[in-house]
């Protein structure tokens, strides 16, 4: 795991070699290791699921590590392992260890629905995982089942506590806020930060692909969320956690141990500072979550060709901003296809 001086190293070591056509330095890769998930969340995947990728199309752990090894010397520094639900892929700790061994990589995080965290958090931490982002859209068992559309006894508090006990830090809890579905829980989630050194982030709903039954009417703008939270206690703007701030704006209740963040893809886009690209489970590089362009890395990888030219070509076509407000989603049927 990264040491206390990790943040200090980045400024000295980050290369500016990898830039897109708008001058943005690309340092962050989100890696989907599977398209499968044990949830069918309202905003993320159709109830019927999707047509799963054949196993032969999925990158092996060795192939993923090879991609990162070729890109890290060019300036890549931060990785996030996503899915689908990444903890469903067997022996994920083996991939974490491979990525941890790449010298230039300074930060490895995991996005998960949290169901398996109590069982795997310590194993992943020993392999070299730094931190966790956990999705939790309700604190109520019946509502968790309704939103995930699965029979589950998932306990978000127990999952976050297990990650914390394993030394994974900072702990971030991501809540997709949906009007009339779970928006009455925003204050309950925010109160978690009073006693726990956790970072609760409220994310504006993004109606995508086949999730169009969730519409603009379900979007709760971040400004409204913040007004609601002022009823709990005074909120003050603060810096976010030392690692992995990303696009969130952060606030803190007076005397709270943790912070509250808002992520605003709908009401206040943050594309101008985007420093990330995505590697799909079947080896396609996607430079914008909702963009049209994808670059096949799997074929040249399996043919033994250097990946740098393909990566640079993909960056040249990275768009200046997404077009989600125009409901253009780049062919995505569901967010689960690219890990968000």
Overall description:
It is a single chain. The protein has 340 residues and is of the alpha/beta class. The protein has ten helices and twelve strands. It has a single domain (19-186, 204-235, 269-337), classed as TIM Barrel, CATH 3.20.20.70. The chain has helices spanning 6-13, 61-71, 92-100, 117-127, 141-148, 156-165, 186-195, 222-229, 298-302, 308-316, and strands spanning 28-32, 78-82, 107-112, 131-135, 171-177, 198-204, 235-238, 249-253, 259-263, 276-279, 284-286, 294-296. The protein has a twelve-stranded mixed sheet. Strand 11 (284-286) and strand 12 (294-296) form a beta hairpin. Helix 3 packs parallel to helix 4. The chain starts with 5 loop residues before the first helix and ends in a 24-residue tail after the last helix. The model is unreliable at 1-16 and 324-334 (pLDDT under 50).
Secondary structure layout:
Elements: H1 6-13, E1 28-32, H2 61-71, E2 78-82, H3 92-100, E3 107-112, H4 117-127, E4 131-135, H5 141-148, H6 156-165, E5 171-177, H7 186-195, E6 198-204, H8 222-229, E7 235-238, E8 249-253, E9 259-263, E10 276-279, E11 284-286, E12 294-296, H9 298-302, H10 308-316
Parallel strand pairs: 1-2, 1-10, 2-3, 3-4, 4-5, 5-6, 6-9
Antiparallel strand pairs: 7-8, 8-9, 10-11, 11-12
Helix pairs in contact: 2-3, 3-4, 4-6
